[in-house]
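#struct-help
A.M.: can someone run this one for me? Single chain, 66 residues.
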Amino acid sequence: MVYLHPYDLDADVPRIKVPLAFRVIRYYNLAKTETYLRRLLSTFTFSAIKDLLSSITLSLPVTQIR
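D.P.: on it. Structure tokens below:
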């Protein structure tokens, strides 16, 4: 599963003055996000989660309750 906000693809997003920890989490390698996403999309096969869930069959043990 891949989850991105639209602003994760904007390397020129305005920087706000926030604590260092937040800056590292939010802005570190931001310019490389698009490259990473393109690599993921070309390397792996993706589908909708509903398709994945509909293809799974669960084999749960059936027990009888008396």
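A.M.: thanks! Residues 6-55 form one domain.
D.P.: also worth noting: Residues 33-43 form the longest helix (11 residues).
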